[in-house]
Amino acid sequence: MAFLVDPSRPFVPLMATPGVYAPQADTFLLARAVHREGPAPGTDVLDLGTGTGTLAICAARSGARVTAVDIAWRAVFAARLNALRSRQRLTVHRGDLLEPVEGRSFDMIISNPPYVPTPPSELSGAHGRERAWNAGPDGRTVLDRICAEAPRALRPGGVLLIAQSALSGTEETLDRLAGSGLRATVSDRAYIPFGPVLRSRLPWLRESGRVAAREENEELVIVRAERT
Prior knowledge:
With 228 residues, the chain is α/β, with parallel strands linked by helices. 27% of the residues lie in helices and 28% in strands.
């Protein structure tokens, strides 16, 4: 069981069902950013790669109309279950990023996508929770798609919030979003010790120059992009 942090309200218990990525530091960093944005009642919010539905529920509690998408059936089930437990209304679709909402537009899009650089030897056969973090050798397999596709679904004045690691190229994300006509900045940063997945990949990460020899912490960032 995980907990959704909302500074204005009590903790909400959420179920992290087997095979679904459990909320961690990146989720909570993005949840705080969503809370700070304060989506107004009736605004349309899209959560890409919803997992347990943590971020979707965070937005729904403000009164927003929230649509959530995940490619994994287990995540779709978990998000629907947690919405019921939290007494929040979500529309949850199974599908690949924006495919289930093609033709629609939103006031806010939020995403905590896979972004962990992945050795070629671990790319094949990824399943279950591994799909929530494995993101190609540069960590950008899904990030680049979001940077290309999400701006087209954002209404004028709308906001895109993305969580990622600096290991997967913060400046690359900013540049790609700027190229799509958005005004993009880093709104939040946090430094945390390497988790189990990164620790297991340290030899490869150091050999490839992605992590310095004595580096033991990961920088998480929230990229905020606005369509002006």
